[in-house]
Amino acid sequence: MKTAQEIAEYVGGTLEGDPRQQIHGVGSLEHAGPGMLAYAEAAYVDRVPATGASCVLVPAGDHPGRTVILVDNPRLAFARAAQWLAPAEAPQSGVHPEALVHEDAAVAPDAAIGAWTLIEHGAHVGARTVVYPGCYVGAGSRIGDDCVVFPHVVIYPGVTVGDRAVIHAGVVLGADGFGFVSDGARHVKVPQVGRAEIGSDVEIGANSCVDRAALDATAVGDGVKIDNLCQIGHNVQVGAHAIISAQTGVAGSTRIGGRSTIGGQVGIGDHCRIEEGAIVGSGGGIPSRKRVPGGVVYWGTPARPLSDVKLQQAHVSRLPKMAEELKQLRDEVQALRNRLDD
Amino acid sequence: MKTAQEIAEYVGGTLEGDPRQQIHGVGSLEHAGPGMLAYAEAAYVDRVPATGASCVLVPAGDHPGRTVILVDNPRLAFARAAQWLAPAEAPQSGVHPEALVHEDAAVAPDAAIGAWTLIEHGAHVGARTVVYPGCYVGAGSRIGDDCVVFPHVVIYPGVTVGDRAVIHAGVVLGADGFGFVSDGARHVKVPQVGRAEIGSDVEIGANSCVDRAALDATAVGDGVKIDNLCQIGHNVQVGAHAIISAQTGVAGSTRIGGRSTIGGQVGIGDHCRIEEGAIVGSGGGIPSRKRVPGGVVYWGTPARPLSDVKLQQAHVSRLPKMAEELKQLRDEVQALRNRLDD
Amino acid sequence: MKTAQEIAEYVGGTLEGDPRQQIHGVGSLEHAGPGMLAYAEAAYVDRVPATGASCVLVPAGDHPGRTVILVDNPRLAFARAAQWLAPAEAPQSGVHPEALVHEDAAVAPDAAIGAWTLIEHGAHVGARTVVYPGCYVGAGSRIGDDCVVFPHVVIYPGVTVGDRAVIHAGVVLGADGFGFVSDGARHVKVPQVGRAEIGSDVEIGANSCVDRAALDATAVGDGVKIDNLCQIGHNVQVGAHAIISAQTGVAGSTRIGGRSTIGGQVGIGDHCRIEEGAIVGSGGGIPSRKRVPGGVVYWGTPARPLSDVKLQQAHVSRLPKMAEELKQLRDEVQALRNRLDD
Fold first, then answer.
1. Residues of chain A with pLDDT under 50
2. Which of the residues of A are catalytic?
3. What is the pLDDT of residue C19?
4. Does the annotation count B234 as an active-site position?
5. Which DSSP symbol is given to A332?
6. pLDDT of C33 strictly over 80
7. pLDDT value at residue B342
8. Annotated catalytic residue within C234, C241, C271, C315
9. Is the ipTM reported for this complex over the cut 0.90?
10. Correct CATH for B2-85 of 3.10.310.30, 3.40.50.150, 3.40.1390.10, 3.10.50.40
């Protein structure tokens, strides 16, 4: 429980209204009730008078009779305040009696290892890290401090995860990359003996996969956020603070630059170079070995600058009219010819 | 074991042939053997004479020497008869000695909880519901009556599932939605503190994900069927009896109307409004904030009415011819000019 | 530890340099160190002088002062040598005390069954097969010899897997196909009572799904390699030695010919016939009931021969120029008309 004044100070905003308003949780502008904090971005400020929330983070405006906190970025302030008001419930630390920790594994005393989780030999689990029930942490893998590993995550041997990472349920880290070479009759497996390295402050969504490298390492940089059901192929490198939305796939050896933003269901071929700050719209397809520069929105398959795609779409849309004009012109030319022939 | 006559009565059809034919199972027209029931839709009725099945559900026709049951919809009658002939084998009820049920959880006495399944505090499992081995049911979650939860399903805290739902292996319900806000340097997580509410008679395919809401609730309505490897983002609302095929992704806050049909690998952006009875063909892409009306097939990326897509494809296909015509016309105009110049 | 000479003999190559060079592992040309074997395909042979590897598999060339092995196909030779040098570490055989094997299941004495893995009644696990922790092998399922089943694989009842198959973490085999029939008001489930049959030497990537058939069998042929997060629908048949890349989905009853190559994120509709040796580029979409012939690269949605797609793309790219030409022609015709009118 905090007061509105305390929250205003925490987020660096200016309070208007009742500073002693008691706040115990967060809610949406539409459904929040008494004791709750909500937020309104500029487009929704007109809904503030009707909210049931006791306090609202707003970017501007006059809100007589309401308790509001003026901030530059209400959503950012809300994110911070929500974390502060309701820190994630951490399970009790210690190794559950139904978990198995190999005698050669190192688990920090204040880490929490859930039931039916196996920590294999040579693995390391850092301070205050929570590994939920039913996880598998392979031999020699290393999870840093303050991580949360949700149920049923599988970490193959030799994977590293930095600090403060959040790995959601069903994620598979370090499975073999997809590498085969034909001997003419059969596909011979190219042993996938590299590593997978996940940085600090990374979040990986449910049922996503990051494959281990064939040789060397697949690397996901610090602060990268990956949504659900994504596929990161072997030897891919994802630069720091990139965003990868749901169901996107990245094929082998591609490099994704730092602070790039990849939409949902994007397909990126192998050996591509997606540069720092690049933006690929949802559903876009990048053929193998292409380069996508930063700062321009790319879209479509094969992906091109969005402005090019839109221009081309406009031209294509005008095709029926163009066909009509062509027909008309043919008639006119015929008419001219007739006049000459007469 | 039922007789052909009993089956005819059960499905409301008319028997022709031997009413005492004993039926113990179901099979395909091609591979069914003695004692088995098959079905033939209109297009395959000519294959009835060659089947090894002892009884066939047919829409019409004369089938001398065979035992058939005439019904309006053979596939529907088959679906009902198959369920009746071979009800799903239910594991023994009770809590497996290797399962863990928190003392503050409520599990119906006739529910079945498999080995290495954890039912967390405050969770509820309804009557006759089967939770297979290796599942995780988070704190305060609620699963209704007569559900089947296959192995390795992860249900985060605070998720509700109605009655008679079928949740396939590897499904993740209630993982955090993908919400971040930049503070200029880093992506700050927007706490995902809402709920996920799954209705009754819902089926969700293997390894699919339904995220919890940021605030309020992600809602999957009664009777919705979701195929494998689908992604339902935070705050999405799926109306009753919608169908969503494999590998489709739905981004945040989109509303999918009741009885709509979404093909496979469809991508639906955030804040879309897919109206009741809408149909989106496989592979279609709906950009953010678009509206798709009901009753018309939409396809392509960006998705448009299928008739528009086909018309445009026809125009594009005619491009080589059009280029040729343009060239010809240029020549003719040149010829006319020459005649005038002469 | 092997000598360079032993490796040369094993892969059938010609050694140049020091035959007694000791090799204990493999690495990339860039990062390998002393005692390691690397390989260089033709395009990278110029990097051989700078490598830290003690021995390099090369296709040709003169490499004074280096120990190299000349082979026709360096990547293939490397794959073989790497497997030989570092055979996969197998867990100890036997049933882990925390595993549960039904008394009516048959587990080979030299198989390894990990903790919290359940082998249901009537199931069979073959010789030297490893089933990692947390797997579920349903009633009557059958896994052949020398397979590796990684953690958290769920095999529904009645699924068969051949010999030497590799099934990665989170894979779901034999879940219900997506089959419903409307009774006008609701979707009635069509019982999925068929089987799923996985051949020998198959590899299936993490979190992929192969559904059981409605009736009869879904079949994945010998030597097929399926990448992560793929969906193989009910009654699909995948011919021997086909390759299916990540996030591809194949809808019901489609047949994929032997030795075909399907790229990533491909969508294949139901009842398609993809013929032997077909090639579908990444992101391609095959509408229901289409036939794709072998030996030609198909791409796009709806997929067509790549040459057609490229030709059409070229025509579309020329649209702005074409519009310009059309306008010019209109002006010229107008000019001619003016001359005639004068």
1. none
2. 234
3. 95
4. yes
5. H
6. yes
7. 80
8. C234
9. yes
10. 3.40.1390.10
Q: Which architecture does CATH list for B94-306?
A: 3 Solenoid (2.160)
> DSSP assignment, residue C222?
T
A181 and C83 within 8 Å at the Cβ level: the answer is no
Give the pLDDT score at C60. 86
User: How far away is chain A from the Cα of C338, in angstroms, using its nearest Cα?
Assistant: 10
What was the pLDDT predicted at A167? Answer: 98
DSSP A223: T
Are A178 and C246 a contacting pair at CB < 8 A?
Answer: yes
- Kindly give the parts of chain B with pLDDT less than 50: none
**Residue A293: per-residue pLDDT:** 97
The pTM (predicted TM-score) of the whole model is 0.96
Interface contact flag, B169 C316, Cβ < 8 Å = no
All residues of chain A having their beta carbon less than 8 Å from the beta carbon of residue C265 are 249, 265, 267, 285
**Cis ω before B302 (30° cut-off from 0):** yes
At residue B58, the pLDDT reads 96
Alpha-carbon gap: C152 to the closest alpha carbon of chain B (Å): 7
User: What residues contact residue A315 under an 8 Å CB cut-off, 6+ apart?
Assistant: C316, C319, C320, C323
A221, burial (CB in 10 Å: exposed 0-12, middle 13-18, buried 19+): buried
Q: Return all residues near A294 (Cβ < 8 A) that are at least 6 apart.
A: A257, A260, A275, A276, A277, A278
Chain B residues with CB-CB distance to A201 below 8 A: 186
Q: Scanning every residue of chain A, which has its alpha carbon at the shortest distance from the alpha carbon of C331?
A: A329
| pLDDT on residue B290 | 97
Chain B partners within 8 Å of C251 (Cβ): 245-246, 264, 282
DSSP C215: S
Position B149 scores a pLDDT of 98
With CB atoms and an 8 Å threshold, state whether C283 touches A265: no
Q: Do C76 and A211 touch (CB under 8 A)?
A: no
Residues of chain A positioned with their CB less than 8 A from the CB of C26? 191, 193, 215
A172/C223 touch (CB, cutoff 8 Å), yes or no: no
What is the pLDDT at residue C116? 98
Chain A CA closest to residue B315: A319
State the alpha helices, DSSP H only, in B234-288: none
Alpha helices in chain A (DSSP H): 4-11, 74-85, 306-317, 319-341
- Per CB-CB distance under 8 Å, the chain C contacts of A182 are 76
Tens-digit pLDDT profile for residues C247-295? 999 999 999 999 999 999 999 999 999 999 999 999 999 999 999 999 9
Q: What is the pLDDT of residues C120-154, one digit of tens each?
A: 999 999 999 999 999 999 999 999 999 999 999 99
Q: What is the pLDDT of residue B86?
A: 80
Chosen for mutation from A154, A193, A315 (greatest number of chain C CBs closer than 10 Å) is A154
Q: What is the pLDDT of residue B49?
A: 94
Token readout for B224 is 């919705």
- Kindly list the distances between the CA atom of residue B144 and the CA atoms of B92, B95, B162, C281, in Å, as whole numbers in the listed order: 18, 17, 5, 44
- The model's pLDDT over C194-237, given as tens digits with 9 standing for 90+, comes to 999 999 999 999 999 999 999 999 999 999 999 999 999 999 99
**A134 contact residues in C (CB cutoff 8 A):** 116, 134, 152
Instruction: Choose from C154, C309, C332 for mutation: most chain B CBs within 10 A.
Output: C154
Average pLDDT score, chain C: 95
DSSP conformation class of C270: T
Q: Are B56 and B70 in contact (CB under 8 A)?
A: no
Please name the chains neighbouring C, where neighbouring means 3+ C-beta pairs under 8 angstroms.
A, B
Structure tokens at C319: 């649209």
**CA distance, residue C185 to nearest chain A CA (Å):** 32
Paired residues of A281 in beta bridges: none
Domain boundaries, chain B: 2-85, 94-306, 308-341
Q: Which residue of B has its CA nearest to A202?
A: B187
